[in-house]
Design brief:
Elements: E1 2-3, E2 10-11, H1 29-38, H2 41-54, H3 59-83, H4 87-92, H5 100-131, H6 136-153, H7 157-181, H8 185-191, H9 202-211, H10 216-229, H11 240-246, H12 252-292, H13 304-354, H14 379-401, H15 405-434, H16 443-467
Antiparallel strand pairs: 1-2
Helix pairs in contact: 1-10, 1-12, 2-9, 2-12, 2-13, 3-10, 3-12, 3-15, 3-16, 5-6, 5-13, 5-14, 5-15, 6-13, 6-14, 7-12, 7-13, 9-15, 9-16, 12-13, 13-14, 15-16
Length: 471
């Protein structure tokens, strides 16, 4: 990475040729990966709850949040494509108290990771207790322990592949089931008109908003996945001479043109992931509105898996319920693995950033392990440490104390909705102050990012006002 002619702006020193024509399709993997990871708890748990309570009244809100999510993930990935570094590195360069932005990302996410893993495990536990004898908390603890062992050891790829296959199966079954039971087109059209349902409960709505497609750190992870795939050249973690063998550095203008082409490829991947996720989430809304709402059933408590099983049993009988429970166990089990890996990687990177002795003199193109700092542990060791403690031991404590999966995941969703405004607005500032003028977001995306951050800020404010009993 080099500084451009513009003060304090950053751009890669080497940019490989971007794919063209049909070859672009081969690069859409990160969009599919993000979709499979994002369509998890927010779809399986919170969407049927919202649909059971309000049917299609909040469809307009779903579409709005999905649009915001598309804007947010593509702008998060923009920094990585242009500079070769994660957005966390961009936040590290901001002026003010040392690493203030990184600290404000790390501390809330330590809590969010603990609660999020505990909630996912509790839902999987509720599915296991539906078919096996025993207590929900016991199965939830076993799920955390087993997943932590696989993730910390790095031997989880085969299980993760199986979970992604099951996630695809779950999505396809959900779409088919929604088509079979759908009957109320007029209500869907009415749901496109913005409005607030009577007796709207923010405790039901806010966790859903906070987990539609991705939580606050899930937005950041899309940038990791595109960088790992090699967009723009990937993350810079190798000597310059090796990078030069792949492509000539060329002029600033030529690099800018190549990066712009890579950004268009990234935009396609983001669009694919978001649209695919929207189809699945709307399908869960249909199932909740058509099957649960007429019966007055809202998935909650330790019976959440049984309630969700009704979504398929109404269509395919006992076999459908078994398929739903199996999908919850395997697909959400895979989500636990992916989230443990994602949080562990992010926490390790933030720790390496916070521990640098001379952050302004650290070699930008060298591996993070070789940069001078307070921590002598490698990124891999730090990642495993965070996985074991923050996404392993602490979630076990939460599961034992709070057995209700809905309560746990509601807390996680609320944290995501509250933390999202800071992440989004800070990222917008980083892109406008650290990227060259030609590679910054244009007026449309800048305004959309600003509105996205203010939208989540408004929801967080409403929740705290309700929590305080002022409304």
């Amino acid at each position: 990475m080099t500084r451009s002619d513009q003060t304090d702006t950053m751009i890669r020193s080497v940019v490989p040729l971007p794919p063209v024509g049909k070859d672009k399709l081969k690069w859409y993997g990160p969009g599919l990966l993000w979709m499979l990871s994002a369509v998890g708890t927010g779809s399986i748990l919170f969407t049927p709850r919202v649909a059971s309570a309000y049917q299609y009244d909040l469809l307009w809100l779903l579409l709005l949040v999905v649009f915001f999510m598309w804007v947010m993930i593509r702008e998060m990935a923009r920094f990585s494509v242009v500079t070769g570094h994660s957005m966390l590195e961009g936040m590290h360069t901001l002026k003010g108290p040392r690493n203030w932005a990184v600290w404000l990302i790390l501390l809330p996410q330590l809590f969010a990771a603990t609660v999020g893993i505990a909630g996912l495990s509790a839902i999987v536990g509720s599915a296991l207790v539906s078919v096996l004898p025993g207590a929900n908390w016991l199965y939830s603890v076993l799920v955390v322990v087993i997943c932590t062992g696989f993730t910390a050891s790095g031997r989880y790829m085969k299980i993760e592949r199986l979970s992604r296959i099951m996630a695809v199966v779950l999505m396809l079954l959900t779409v088919v089931a929604a088509i079979v039971v759908f009957s109320d087109g007029q209500s869907v059209m009415a749901g496109l008109v913005p409005g607030v349902p009577e007796n709207a409960d923010l405790y039901i709505i806010l966790p859903w908003v906070g987990t539609i497609l991705a939580g606050s750190m899930g937005i950041v992870w899309f940038g990791y996945w595109t960088a790992s795939r090699g967009y723009g050249g990937g993350l810079i973690e190798e000597p310059r001479d090796q990078a030069r063998q792949r492509s000539d550095p060329d002029t600033f203008e030529q690099r800018t043109q190549r990066i712009q082409a890579w950004l268009r490829v990234m935009n396609g991947a983001a669009t694919l992931g978001v649209l695919g996720g929207l189809v699945v989430i709307f399908s869960f809304m249909v199932l909740g509105a058509e099957l649960l709402a007429p019966q007055g059933v809202m998935p909650q408590g330790s019976d959440v898996a049984d309630d969700l099983g009704r979504l398929f049993s109404e269509t395919w009988g006992a076999a459908g319920e078994i398929m739903m429970l199996a999908a919850i166990i395997i697909a959400l089990g895979g989500s636990i693995l992916a989230n443990q890996d994602g949080w562990g990687r992010s926490f390790a990177d933030m720790t390496m950033i916070l521990g640098r002795v001379e952050p302004d003199r650290a070699a930008p193109d060298g591996p993070a392990e070789t940069q001078a700092g307070f921590f002598t542990l490698s990124r891999r060791t730090l990642k495993r440490l965070f996985i074991v403690v923050v996404t392993g031991v602490l979630p076990v404590v939460v599961v034992v104390v709070f057995e209700d999966p809905v309560q746990i995941m509601s807390a996680s969703g609320i944290i995501a909705a509250v933390h999202t405004p800071f992440i989004v607005l800070t990222a917008l500032f980083v892109n406008h102050t650290r990227l060259p003028q030609a590679l910054r977001p244009g007026p449309f995306y800048s305004l959309a990012m600003l509105v996205s951050g203010l939208f989540y800020l408004g929801f967080a404010t409403l929740y705290f006002v309700q929590l305080a009993g002022w409304i």
